[in-house]
Amino acid sequence: MKKLWVVFAVLCLMGVAQADMVINGADPGAAWNGWMNVFETPANGGGYLWGSSWGAADLRAGFDGAGVLSLAPNTNCYNPADAYWVNPDGSGNKDMEANFYQEWSGLAGQMVTFNYTVGTNTLPAGYIAQAFIKVLNPDDSWATINIAVAELTPGSGTVSLAVNSIANPVTQVGFMLRGLVVDPASEAAATSVTIVPEPTTIALLGLGALVLKRRK
Question: How far apart are CA 100 and CA 98, in angstroms?
């Protein structure tokens, strides 16, 4: 049976004004966003083409009933009748960078740490899978002004980043999968990287700490 413990501790420390954020695990109940960036293939120079908001299903990112997050190569853009997406030999003609993330505002000057556990990574050679923390500046055309990444290899992982002290930073924390669009019937389409569930904590540390921990 699932139980929920909420612990609030006030630390008697004078002069501590800031709070740091620690996120443990990929929570299925959190507010996740999707964004796809599209690039030319490495053979065609790899240049950036465009990006837009995408639904999780189109990213091929989602949680199963046990809370396992899977990230898989893009298939929904595969159209052999469209040379924009598919080469004459059937190979993908675009490099797809799927971003699945949570987002916060108002963390200027704080340290953000993201802890997670990778279960498996069966992605084909050439695919990139990373955990990331990004800081964007909405007052400068949403430019990414700071980023930290870690490769998604099986086992425990962590990534940390100090949020820039600007007026309106937006901090994104999540996962990125980049690689060619693939045929839904191909072996590559059946590969994935998985993030396994663990006790989920979002903690604000400093003058006080709020810790939410979920266990089975």
Answer: 7
What average pLDDT does this structure show over 20-43? 95
What's the pLDDT at 205?
54
Would you kindly state where each structural domain of the chain is located, as residue ranges? 3-215
The answer to whether residues 127 and 215 touch, using CB atoms and an 8 Å cutoff, is no
Q: How many helices (H) and strands (E) does the chain have?
A: 1, 15
The type of residue at 53 is S
* Position 168 confidence tier, pLDDT thresholds 50, 70, 90: very high
Distance (Å) of CA 104 to CA 34, 101, 172, 195: 14, 10, 7, 21
> In the 8-state DSSP scheme, what is residue 186?
S
C-alpha 192/C-alpha 176 separation (Å) is 12
The 10 Å Cβ neighbour count of residue 55 is 12
Mean pLDDT of the chain: 88
Q: Which of 85, 101, 182 is nearest to 136 (CA)?
A: 101
Closest by Cα among 44, 5, 27 to 173 = 27
Report how far apart, in Å, the C-alpha atoms of 86 and of each of 19, 35, 57, 99 are.
48, 21, 21, 22
Amino acid at 157: G
Query: What is the mean pLDDT of the segment spanning 20-41?
Result: 96
- Provide the percentage of residues in the chain whose pLDDT is more than 90: 82
The count of C-alpha atoms lying within 13 angstroms of the C-alpha of 153, restricted to the half-sphere facing its C-beta, is 3
